[in-house]
Design a protein that fits this description.
Blueprint lengths: L1 H17 L11 H23 L6 H18 L1 H5 E9 L8 H8 L10 E7 L2 H6 L13 H12 L5 H25 L6 E5 L14 H23 L4
Antiparallel strand pairs: 1-2, 2-3
Helix pairs in contact: 1-2, 3-7, 3-9, 8-9
Length: 239
C-alpha cells in the first residue's frame, strides 16, 4: 500500500510540473489536481500490482522454467529418446554367411518372417527431439510459442539496462531452435537406417553405435540453447 501512495504522490507532482505557468491559480484546485492524477492512476496501479504479485505466479515464467527442465531431460535421455529398438528384422539363422541365398529370398517377402525367430534392429529417430523442443506444435511441450512468452516477460520484467542483452539472447535462442528444426527435419529421410541390434531383448541397443551427424549437431545445439535459456532466466527477477 505504501508503494501505491508513493505512486499517487508522484503522479500529482507530475501534473503540477507539466501544468502551464500561465494557468490561472484558481484552476489548480484540489479537485482538479486529484481528478487529473486519479485518471491515470488505475493503469499505473495495475502495472505495479502485476510486478508485485511475484514472478513465480507468472504463467510465461513458469513456462520458461518448464522449458528448461524439458531440455535438461532431453539431453539426459538423448540416446533412449533417439534410438528405437522395435524393429523385427532378419531371423538369426539367416545371419550366417552360408544362408545368404535364403536371406535374399526371405528379404523379398519380409512380412513372412517368423518374428519370434528374428533379431530386433535399432534405428535412430528424430521425433522425440522435435516433440520435446516444441517443433511439433501439437506436442504440448512448454517450448511451443516460446518467442511470444519472451516478449510478454520482457514487457513486464526486463529493465531498460538489460533490454539489449535480452534481445540478443532471445534471438540467439530462436536461431538455435531453428537450426535444430532444420537438422532434425533432414534426419527424417535417414531415420530408417539401422544403427545396431538388440540381441538381449531388452529394447536397448547392444554396444556403441555411430550416430547420424545431423543428430550429433542437433544435440550440441540443444546443449547451447539450454545454456542460453539459463542466461535469459537469469535476467529476470528472482522469484
Amino acid at each position: 500500500m505504501n508503494a501505491l501512495l508513493q505512486l499517487a504522490v508522484l503522479l500529482c507532482l507530475e501534473f503540477v510540473i507539466v501544468t502551464p505557468l500561465h494557468m490561472p491559480p484558481k484552476a489548480l484546485t484540489r479537485r482538479a489536481l486529484l481528478s487529473s492524477s486519479i485518471s491515470t492512476l488505475p493503469i499505473a496501479i495495475a502495472t505495479l500490482a502485476s510486478a508485485d504479485s511475484g514472478i513465480q505466479d507468472n504463467n510465461e515464467y513458469k513456462s520458461l522454467i518448464a522449458s528448461r527442465k524439458t531440455m535438461e531431460l532431453l539431453l539426459e535421455d538423448w540416446s533412449d529418446l533417439t534410438v528405437s529398438c522395435l524393429y523385427a528384422d532378419i531371423p538369426r539363422d539367416l545371419l550366417e554367411q552360408k544362408n545368404k541365398e535364403q536371406l535374399l529370398k526371405e528379404a523379398s517377402t519380409f512380412a513372412l518372417f517368423d518374428k519370434s525367430a528374428s533379431v530386433t534392429s535399432c534405428k535412430e529417430s528424430n521425433s522425440k527431439i522435435r516433440q520435446y523442443l516444441g517443433i511439433y506444435k501439437e506436442s504440448g511441450s512448454a517450448l511451443v510459442g516460446i518467442d511470444k512468452k519472451f516478449k510478454k516477460l520482457k514487457d513486464v520484467y526486463v529493465n531498460d539496462d538489460d533490454e539489449e542483452r535480452w534481445f540478443d539472447l532471445t534471438d540467439e535462442f530462436n536461431v538455435r531452435l531453428s537450426k535444430i528444426d532444420t537438422l532434425t527435419y533432414q534426419t527424417t529421410l535417414l531415420s530408417q537406417t539401422t544403427v545396431g541390434l538388440d540381441l538381449n531383448g531388452d529394447s536397448k541397443i547392444d554396444g556403441s553405435y555411430i550416430s547420424n551427424p545431423d543428430l550429433v549437431s542437433a544435440k550440441e545445439d540443444t546443449r547451447v540453447a539450454l545454456s542460453i535459456l539459463n542466461d535469459i532466466i537469469a535476467i529476470l527477477p528472482s522469484p
